[in-house]
Amino acid sequence: MLQAGEKQNLVIVKETGFGVYLAESKESAERVLLPKKEVGAQARLGDALEVFLYRDSSDRLIATRREPVLTLGKTAVLKVKDVTKIGAFLDWGLEKDLLLPFHEQTAKVYPGEECLVALYLDKSSRLCATMRVYPYLLKNSPYRPGDEVHGRVYELSGNFGAFVAVDDRYSGLVPRRESGVEELKVGDRVHARVTGVKEDGKLDLSIREKAYLQMDEDAEYVMQVIEEFDGVLPFSDKANPETIRREFGLSKNAFKRAVGRLLKEGRIEITENRIRKVN
Asked: Is the dihedral angle over the CA atoms 120, 124, 126, 128 positive or is it negative?
């Protein structure tokens, strides 16, 4: 069966003035045209050629010997060439650019930008790109807890956090509770630490340093906020997590570690319902 979006080894079964027709075998009724400019001078009837199948500007199935950046069900980072009324068009190495429909965009894209996409067939059997790559990402990464990784944010969720494609191919998540996740945007490149590997292989990520490395930075940030409150916070380290996250963007544990560092250094004092800067 001839399938758009995939590479196939097909046989030359007919020659014409404008190219050759390819099929799975000489007996196959289903055929596809390979344009003359891509046939090659040495090709003859009966020769097998590896080609990629897609649809041309007239929506006809056509073969090419060009190497596409992306094949069906896979992911790749592509550059946006143009944005029109029906969506964005991406450069994927073929004559006809690849459509990224508006409803498949997880954030607005602009010409010249890069975005991570997967290739799929729409309801009309046309090849399109989607930024909703979650189902297409791999779950067999080589990474383990403690490993440092790089990834790209491809979708944001108010319930779950920031979905990240590690190495642009493996499934990862920075949880919503993570400090700083609210500042991330689709397309951001992040440096993260693997905090866990789920049973299905998905990666839990943290964009914060290990606690003992992050503590100094957090302590200075907390001190800055205290000074903005004229040296007195109207709550102690026993404040509820929602208050702490609202005022500092930190988890309660990270806040308590930072306050503990400042207390040990003698820079603050803590009362029952206040944290006060020591002059």
From this structure: negative
Give yes or no for a contact between 214 and 208, defined as CB atoms under 8 angstroms apart. Answer: yes
Question: Helices marked H in the chain — which ranges?
Answer: 211-228, 241-248, 252-264
At how many degrees (to 10) do helices 252-264 and 241-248 cross?
70
Helix (H, G, I), strand (E, B) or coil at 104: helix
Q: For residue 55, with 0-12 CB atoms within 10 Å meaning exposed, 13-18 middle and 19 or more buried, which class applies?
A: middle
At 3-57, the pLDDT tens digits run: 888 888 998 888 888 888 898 888 888 888 988 888 877 878 888 889 999 887 7
Q: Is the whole-model pTM more than 0.85?
A: no
Residue 225 has pLDDT above 90, yes or no: no
278 within 8 A of 226, measured Cβ to Cβ: no
DSSP 121-145: E-TTS-EEEES--GGGSBS--S--T
Under DSSP, the state recorded for 207 is S
Strand-by-strand arrangement of the 75-83 sheet? 98-101, 87-91, 75-83, 114-121, 127-130
pLDDT in tens, 136-170: 999 999 999 989 899 999 999 988 999 999 999 99
Distances (CA, A) of 42 to 25, 71, 72, 237: 20, 27, 30, 78
The answer to whether the CB of 277 falls within 8 A of the CB of 227 is: yes
CB count in 10 Å sphere of residue 240: 10
